[in-house]
Amino acid sequence: MGQISNRPPLMSLRNVNLWYGDKQALIDVSFDLYPNEILAFIGPSGCGKSTALKCLNRMHDGTRDIRLTGRIEMDGQDINDPCIDPPMHRRRFGWVAQKPNPFPATIWQNVAYGARLHGLMRSRAELEAHVEDCLRRAHLWDEVKDHLHDMDGTELSGGQQQRLCIARALSTQPDVLLMDEPTGSIDPIATAKVEQLMLTLKTDHAIVVVTHSMMEAKRVADRVAYFHLGRLLELGSTDQVFTAPRTKEARRFVEGKLG
Ligand SMILES: Nc1ncnc2c1ncn2[C@@H]1O[C@H](COP(=O)(O)OP(=O)(O)OP(=O)(O)O)[C@@H](O)[C@H]1O
């Protein structure tokens, strides 16, 4: 499945099937996720990209009428094993949604929340330094440093809000960032900033990004997974999937003939 480094995979999915009630949304999906890579999920609407993303951090837990078979491992351990504590598992992931969704709270509180919830910092001074570090890593510090406590996250521009959400996602010191169309509702300049940020963040995190933008996948992804009607039809280097797709469905999609 297109190993990209000598390091073992951080996550492995094997023969994963998922049903919403009677409807099967994922069919026999297998792939590995490596540390420090950006893996993009592409494919037509409704093909299972977001569903696959949510399997990684067990975001489906608690959703009614869902059934999952197959095996999902992280660091070699079955993530759905009863001995895994779901909140502890979820802490290893940062989630960034399409629409920026900061909490209706100050910029500082938005970023401090995750670290506080999980008791990650030992003192107020450590927490202050951590909030600054997350905001710097999200390329937002210089724009907000004078308004950490007197401005709500919701008062920032759309692009700034999305970088705030990324800073918030970094707060729990995740191994993996899951991004569901992170530039889908921001303007081109803000998009360029978020894409640049993703390329910086992969030095410390694996990133899985769902995108409808072929250009974005080409600009940021190391590997691309093409989903089609619930199946992962093709997985390869970004260059291979875009220049020499192996399946006719992926070829039609990257040529813009299948939406
Ligand atoms: N909570 C749910 N309950 C029932 N069916 C669902 C649910 N979520 C998704 N589905 C269905 O599962 C299939 C896969 O949906 P999913 O959102 O994963 O696709 P996607 O590739 O991310 O789509 P898009 O690109 O439009 O966001 C679709 O047919 C969708 O209607």
Automatic annotation (TrEMBL):
Presence of the UniProt keyword Nucleotide-binding in the record: yes
Molecular function per GO: ATP binding; ATP hydrolysis activity; phosphate transmembrane transporter activity
Record keywords: ATP-binding, Nucleotide-binding, Phosphate transport, Transport
Domain ABC transporter: 11-254
Lineage, top ranks: Bacteria, Pseudomonadati, Pseudomonadota, Alphaproteobacteria, Rhodobacterales
Biological process annotations from GO: phosphate ion transmembrane transport
Source organism of this protein record: Roseovarius indicus
InterPro entries associated with the record: AAA+_ATPase (IPR003593), ABC_transporter-like_ATP-bd (IPR003439), ABC_transporter-like_CS (IPR017871), P-loop_NTPase (IPR027417), PstB-like (IPR005670)
PANTHER family: ABC TRANSPORTER I FAMILY MEMBER 17
Keyword Transport: yes
PROSITE patterns (alphabetical): ABC_TRANSPORTER_1, ABC_TRANSPORTER_2
Protein name, as recorded: Phosphate ABC transporter ATP-binding protein
Cellular component GO terms, alphabetical: membrane
